[in-house]
Structures are given as structure tokens and as C-alpha cells.
Design a protein that fits this description.
The complex is a heterodimer of chains A (445) and B (345).
Chain A: H1 4-18, H2 25-41, H3 46-62, H4 71-86, E1 102-108, H5 114-127, E2 133-138, H6 145-155, E3 159-161, H7 169-182, E4 187-192, H8 200-213, E5 217-223, H9 230-241, E6 245-249, H10 259-267, E7 271-275, E8 283-285, H11 288-295, H12 301-311, H13 314-326, H14 331-343, H15 347-351, H16 362-380, H17 384-388, H18 395-405, H19 409-434
Parallel strand pairs in A: 1-4, 1-5, 2-3, 2-4, 5-6, 6-7
Antiparallel strand pairs in A: 7-8
Chain B: H1 3-24, H2 29-44, H3 46-51, H4 53-62, H5 68-80, H6 85-101, H7 107-124, E1 140-145, H8 152-164, E2 170-174, H9 182-193, E3 196-199, H10 206-219, E4 224-228, H11 237-254, E5 259-265, H12 271-282, E6 287-291, H13 301-309, E7 313-317, E8 325-327, H14 330-343
Parallel strand pairs in B: 1-4, 1-5, 2-3, 2-4, 5-6, 6-7
Antiparallel strand pairs in B: 7-8
Helix pairs in contact in B: 1-14, 2-14, 4-14, 5-6, 6-7, 8-9, 10-11, 12-13
The chains are: A alpha/beta (445), B alpha/beta (345).
């Protein structure tokens, strides 16, 4: 995820400092220089960096870090706290109206991810918050933008106001609001066309929409890869419309996402969501404190916990544990476990949440992910009996499975070996289970 | 002669010529086209200029002679243009050294040197760049790649228009079978342009759509086949492998490498270099198209990409209209970005 590289840089600085027992003004300057370069390379705006560094230095001097027992950690703490403050001190969620529809408008430059995010937001609110959601297609300019939203809306089974490209966006928004009120929707999400912040007529159009429907939330989409100019964009959109939040898209890339810091600092508008992948469920709530800790290499256990509880079907998980305990553990069960884990997202994105997790190259990761897929193909090529009683698998059966799955006998042996080792572990767990303590996390992969 | 002086001469001469030519009141088709193109650069880069050369100009007014503060202000201007930290620091170091050695203290002179230094490396390696696509062997295949939301599909429409105007037979291939509405978007453009398009089913293997498309282009004697691909972040390994497969399919069909343009959004920050490096690592990128240059971004990332990876910019998107895509011309680009400095005297 973004911020990763920044995290690397800070770790280096921290290491450098840890080697020194005493902090002097000159080696603090050294560290701040590193911090500065890291922030600039992360696309944090030049002026924002300048202010940030000055603030950290001021605070460090004010708190007399030189006298402290562990001064370098004090500086790190100050950097962290300042980062959290820069990113917005609280995590801000959408405020929902109680007795009337909550209206959300998405705005931003071309290609920042508005249409995709509109659908992701709708999906999140519908499934996680059980809201009745209505989408409105207000991008009449980009060819097939409405088609795009229509396809996404139907895939998540959310209603869409689609008046085509001949009706102007102000009118579309008005009609959508009427429908949201009449049909008692909880949330209305309006997609608008991408535009440059300096395009006066199109910015006026947004103002007109705002005036007409007075939305509760106006969210600006920003690309995590955005450079120095993102502050100008955010500033102008904020001046024209009074933004209530920012959504940062494409955070699953390897950009450092410094724009998040810049925008939060320059506009004071909180970042509310981040887009973390191409799937419709790949939208997360933004937590500034967690993000800042991640920048500093402290990992993000809380985010991981959320992700696990959200994606793992509790019943399924319990069933798995029961199987473990009762001793009936089949290849099907193993596949099931693997799928549960896959639901969490890519292994790579998971590992990044864990502080101190071994550094795994993207090569290794994709290898592990490919292995999971291979396992699935192989197990699916077995008969029900074979899956329940893997011990009957002899050479002729293996040859048949290899043919059917397009793999080799060695691949099949690898699956069986993994199965055996999981079963072995299961036995150990059974022993623990007797004492009534079933470990929450059983490692198998 | 430095690049900056050369430019100044060139465009001053042009202005003089214009005066004398207008008295003849007949201009050749060629000159008219040239002027229109220069005007597009000038207009498209208007907002970028405000933040770049106007700031440089303003600096020269505030400082009698250069000092440390002056250089730190230069640093700010360069970094805010997305030139990147290392690129910027390298340049400033050179300038500082030079100004000390030659005892140059005039801000104006330093600024001229700065412009020289910024674009010198670009030219040094770029003498043999031919922006236009070659049609020596047809059908020529062009594949457009890039991360999500940079403007690939729109740029394809503009490029198609560009070559239709040159009486080429263009075929579009919608190999983005992933993003909802991507196919429909390209179909709308094909209709407006009145050209053929090959499409696939939703989630069909893009390599198979590409195969169908290129085969059809070969059968129909198309001059240019443009393949649209899904946006992909360069750290997504599977998607990058998919791209490699698409290129392989094309190579098999036409027995040579296709033209391969990487589309980069001008608002992109330092990640642009990583993008270019990752795509280049995988397939043979033959050029960059930089889009959305009509905003306030300076697109300084193209300089870092050129310096670090040697990939040249071939086309530049200067506005939203169909014909707002121009062949990249460094002189015009510089003129558009720095005309204030050039005209100043």
C-alpha cells in the first residue's frame, strides 16, 4: 500500500538514531533532513513539508528532548503525533440523517475514480450499514460514463437514476433528490463528471447542483499518485463547494500517497475513505492515527483485525474449528480454510499490516497466491470420496487427477503433504482444546 | 549557444517573420499549421506557465543577485513542478557550482542556465526521436497502456482522429474487458469517428480480443490498429503478466514489435517514474503520451522519466477537444512553459 516507502525511510532514520545514545541538535537536523526528503519524495507539497519540519523542530526543542532518557524516541513520537494531526485528528465517518435521505455528491478531476467509488460507497452502505441506497448518474460528458455506473449498480443491485445524457446534471440531481425523498431511500449518491478545477463553467455547474439539492456530504476524489498540484486542486474545489471530506483512490498502488498529507493540511478537510483495489468491496475507512503509525513502521494491527472480522464468516470459521477439534478434517475443509483466508484480500496486503512481519518480496507473494490457486484446482479435480479420504490416493488416482487439473503428480503430493501437516497441527490443537482453550488464530498457511 | 538563447532567437525570428509575412497576406499551409500548433501549446500550457515561468520571473524581480535563499526558492519551484527531489537537487548543485566558478550572480542568467540544464539531457539523447508513428510496414499496431484513469481511451480517440485526418485507415480494438463501460466508451468514439471497432465479451481474455482485432486489421488492410487495454497499477503482478501476453499475441501476428505508448497523467507525482520503469521492464515502451497538460500541473515528471529511463514523450494532451492532442515538440513545449521569460526582452 501507499506510505510503504515513507515507512521504509523513517525506519532508516530511526535506526540511524538508535545507534546513538545522545541526541544533539546536529543529529536531529540530520534526521529531520531525512524526514524532509522522504516527505518530498512521497509527493507531500513543498510548503506543507516546510511547515511540518519547522513544527516538529519547534516541538522537539520546546520539550527539551535532549535531556530525556531516550531522546530519539521522543523525536519519533513528535513526528508521529504531528503526522496524525496533519492527517486529521479523528477518523471521520459520514453523518447520516435520521428521518430523511443523506445526500452525497462526488466531485474531482478526470480519472480520479469517482464512478468506481460511487459504486463502492453504495455497496459499503448497502451491505455493511444496511442502508437503502440510490445512485444517480450525473456524468453526461464522458462517453459511456453512465453505462459504467449502470453496470456497476446492477452488479450490486442498487437502484440508479439514469436520465441519459440529454438532461443537464442539475436537473438530474434534482430529480434524483425527489425520488430519494418520495421512495424513502436512506442514502443518495450522486456521481458527477470529472473536471479541472480551473474550468469555470463546469465548476459553476457543481455550485448549481449544490445550491439546488444542498447535499450533506461533498466528497473530493483524489488519486493516491497525485503530485504537488493536488493542493491547488483541493483548495479550489474546497473554496467553490465547501468540501466535507476526501476519498483517496488507488491506494493499492505503490505510490507514497503524500497528497493525503498535503490536502488534509491545506484544506483541513478530513480524509474519509480510501480505495484499496479494483473489486467493488475494496473501499476502506481512513484512520489517520493508524496511517501515521504505519508510516512510522509500527504496523497496523487494528486495521487487520477489522479486516479479518469483516471478511471471515464467523459460522464458517467455527465450523472449521469444530472440525479440527472433532478430528474429521478433509481436503474440502482445507480448501475452505484457504478460501476464508483468501477473502481477506491478497496476502501481500495482509502482511503489510503486521509490524515485524518478515519482508516478503512481491515475487514470493505471488508465488504463494498462485500456490493457493493450484491447490484449489487440484482438489476440485478429485472425487468426493478422495477428498474425504485422501489416504486412498494412490498412483493411478494421482495420475488421473494430474491429467484433469493440468498439474503434475508432484503438485498433488505437495497438496497432500500440506494436508498432512495441517492434520498434525490439528492433533496438537485437540490437546489444547481439552483445556477449553481453542487458539483464536490457527496457522496453517 | 545555450538552449535558452537558441529558443529565444528562434521564436523572436518567428515573430518577425510573421510581421513581414502578414504583409504578403498569403501564408503557406505549412506555416498556418505550425502556428496553430504553437498556439495550442501556448494556450494549453497557460495555467502551467502561471506557476512556473511567472514564478521564475517574479524571482528575478525580487533578487538583485543570487544567494542561498534564491536557490532554495528555485528548489521550491522545481519541486512543485513535480520534477522530483533528486532531479531538482542535481540541477541546483550544478547551477550553484557553475555560478560560483564563473562568478555569475544575475538571477536572469541563472534562470536561463536553469532552463538549459533542465532540458539539456532531454535533447542530448533525443536527436533521433520521431514522434509520428511510422507506416513503413502496415498494418502498424499501437498498444496503449497505463495505470487507471490516466485517459487511455480518450487519447486513443484523439490519436485515431489524428491519423484519420492523414487519410489512414484506423481500426480500434477494445481489449479492456475488465472495467465496466470501457468497451461502450470506445464504441461511442468509434461511432463518432466512423471507423471499425473490434470488441469482446465482458471479462473475455484481452489477449483473445487482441488476436481477433489484429487479425481483422490484417485482413482488412488497415494502416493502423490501436489496442486499448485496461488500466493497471504497475505493482499488480498478474495484470502486468496479462499485458505481456497481449504484446506477445501481437508480435506473433505481425512478426515485429508493436508501438507501445505509456499514458501518463500530468498530475502524477513521483510515482510516474516507478510506473514508467515497471512498464518498461515488462514490455518495450516506445513512447509516452502525457495527458491533461491543460490543468495547472507542470508535468515535470516527464523530465525525470526521460533522464532516468530515456523514454521520450511522443504526444501531449493539451485540452479536452478532439484535436487537442499534439505531437510533442520540446521547443514548443518550452515556449509554452516559459514564453514569459523568452519574450521578456
Amino acid at each position: 500500500m501507499a506510505f510503504e516507502a515513507l515507512q521504509d525511510k523513517f525506519s532508516k532514520v530511526i535506526k540511524k538514531l538508535k545507534g546513538q545514545s545522545r541526541l544533539t541538535e546536529s543529529n536531529m537536523d540530520e534526521m529531520l533532513k531525512e524526514v524532509r526528503i522522504a516527505l518530498l519524495e512521497a509527493d507531500v507539497n513543498y510548503k506543507v513539508v516546510k511547515e511540518f519540519i519547522n513544527k516538529v523542530k519547534e516541538k522537539a526543542l520546546g520539550e527539551k528532548v535532549f535531556d530525556k532518557l531516550n531522546p530519539s524516541e521522543m523525536v519519533i513520537k513528535i513526528v508521529r503525533d504531528e503526522l496524525v494531526e496533519l492527517l486529521g485528528s479523528d477518523h471521520c465517518e459520514i453523518n447520516y440523517n435520521k428521518n430523511k435521505p443523506t445526500i452525497i455528491m462526488l466531485v474531482g478531476l478526470q480519472g480520479s475514480g469517482k464512478t468506481t467509488t460511487a459504486a463502492k460507497l453504495a455497496n459499503l452502505m448497502k451491505n455493511k450499514l444496511k442502508k437503502k441506497v440510490l445512485l444517480a448518474a450525473g456524468d453526461i460528458y464522458r462517453p459511456a460514463a453512465i453505462d459504467q455506473l449502470a453496470q456497476l449498480a446492477s452488479s450490486i443491485q442498487v437502484d440508479l437514476v439514469n436520465l441519459g445524457t440529454k438532461v443537464n446534471p442539475v436537473e438530474i440531481s434534482k430529480k434524483a433528490k425527489e425520488k430519494a425523498y418520495n421512495d424513502h431511500y436512506d442514502v443518495l449518491i450522486i456521481d458527477t463528471a470529472g473536471r479541472l478545477q480551473i474550468d469555470e463553467p463546469l465548476m459553476q455547474e457543481l455550485s448549481d447542483i449544490k445550491k439546488e439539492i444542498s447535499p450533506d456530504e461533498i466528497l473530493l476524489l483524489t488519486d493516491a499518485m497525485a503530485g504537488q498540484d493536488s493542493v491547488n486542486v483541493a483548495k479550489k474545489f474546497n473554496e467553490t463547494l465547501g468540501l466535507t471530506g476526501v476519498v483517496m483512490s488507488k491506494m493499492d498502488g505503490d505510490s507514497r500517497g503524500g497528497a493525503a498529507l498535503s490536502i488534509a493540511h491545506v484544506t483541513g478537510v478530513p480524509i474519509k475513505f480510501i480505495g484499496v483495489g479494483e473489486k467493488i468491496s475494496d473501499l476502506d475507512i481512513f484512520y489517520p492515527d493508524r496511517m501515521a503509525e504505519r508510516i512510522l513502521g509500527m504496523g497496523d494491527i487494528l486495521s487487520l483485525v477489522d479486516k479479518v472480522t469483516e471478511n471471515i464468516d464467523e459460522k464458517e470459521a467455527k465450523k472449521g474449528i469444530n472440525k479440527f477439534v472433532s478430528g474429521k478434517f478433509t481436503l474440502d475443509d482445507m480448501l475452505h480454510q484457504m478460501k476464508q483466508i483468501q477473502k481477506l484480500g491478497s496476502l501481500g496486503s495482509l502482511l503489510k499490516f503486521i509490524p515485524g512481519a518478515p519482508k516478503v518480496s512481491s515475487d514470493q507473494l505471488s508465488k504463494a497466491e498462485k500456490e493457493m490457486k493450484d491447490f484449489e484446482v487440484i482438489i476440485n479435480s478429485m472425487t468426493k470420496e478422495e477428498r474425504e479420504h485422501p489416504e486412498i490416493l494412490k498412483n493411478s488416482r494421482k495420475c488421473r487427477i494430474a491429467k484433469g487439473s493440468g498439474k503434475t503428480n508432484a503438485d498433488i503430493n505437495r497438496v497432500l503433504k500440506r494436508y498432512e501437516s495441517m492434520k498434525e497441527m490439528m492433533k496438537k490443537m485437540k490437546g489444547m482444546g481439552k483445556n477449553g482453550a481453542i487458539p483464536k488464530n490457527f496457522k496453517g498457511f | 549557444m545555450g538552449l535558452f538563447k537558441f529558443l529565444k532567437e528562434k521564436f523572436k525570428k518567428k515573430e518577425k517573420e510573421e510581421v513581414s509575412e502578414s504583409s504578403e497576406s498569403i501564408k503557406s499551409e505549412e506555416t498556418k499549421k505550425e502556428e496553430a500548433s504553437l498556439e495550442k501549446y501556448n494556450k494549453g500550457l497557460e495555467k502551467s506557465r502561471k506557476n512556473f515561468s511567472n514564478k521564475l520571473e517574479e524571482l528575478t524581480k525580487r533578487y538583485q543577485e543570487v544567494n542561498e535563499e534564491y536557490f532554495s526558492e528555485l528548489e521550491e519551484i522545481l519541486i512543485e513542478a513535480d520534477c522530483g527531489v533528486s532531479f531538482t537537487l542535481n540541477i541546483l548543485e550544478d547551477l550553484l557550482k557553475y555560478s560560483k566558478e564563473k562568478k555569475i550572480t544575475s538571477p536572469k542568467e541563472i534562470n536561463e542556465l536553469l532552463v538549459d540544464r533542465m532540458f539539456l539531457n532531454y535533447i542530448k539523447e533525443g536527436d533521433d526521436i520521431k514522434n509520428e508513428i511510422s507506416f513503413d510496414v502496415t498494418p502498424q499496431v499501437l498498444i496503449m497502456v497505463g495505470v487507471n484513469g490516466v485517459g487511455k481511451t480518450t487519447t486513443i480517440a484523439k490519436l485515431a482522429k489524428h491519423y484519420i485526418d492523414e487519410h489512414k485507415k484506423v481500426l480500434l480494438v477494445a481489449a479492456d474487458t475488465f472495467r465496466a463501460g470501457a468497451k461502450e466508451q470506445l464504441v461511442v468514439w468509434a461511432d463518432r469517428l466512423g471507423i471499425d471497432i473490434v470488441t469482446g465479451e465482458e471479462n473475455e481474455d484481452p489477449a483473445s480480443v487482441t488476436y481477433k482485432g489484429v487479425s481483422k486489421g490484417q485482413k482488412d488492410n488497415a494502416d493502423l490498429i490501436i489496442v486499448d487495454t485496461a488500466g493497471r497499477l504497475q505493482n499488480k503482478k498478474n495484470l502486468m503478466e496479462e499485458l505481456k501476453k497481449i504484446v506477445k499475441v501481437i508480435e506473433k501476428l505481425i512478426n515485429r514489435s508493436p508501438e507501445c505508448f505509456l499514458v501518463i497523467d500530468a498530475t502524477t507525482g513521483q510515482n510516474g517514474v516507478l510506473q514508467a520503469a515497471a512498464f518498461k521492464d515488462l514490455i518495450n515502451i516506445t513512447g509516452i503520451v502525457i495527458t491533461k497538460m491543460d490543468g495547472t500541473s507542470k508535468g515535470g515528471i516527464i523530465l525525470a522519466i526521460r533522464e532516468e529511463l530515456g523514454i521520450p514523450v511522443r504526444f501531449i494532451g493539451l485540452g479536452e477537444k478532439f484535436d487537442d492532442l499534439e505531437e510533442f515538440d520540446l521547443d514548443k513545449y518550452l515556449y509554452g512553459l516559459c514564453s514569459g521569460l523568452i519574450k521578456d526582452e
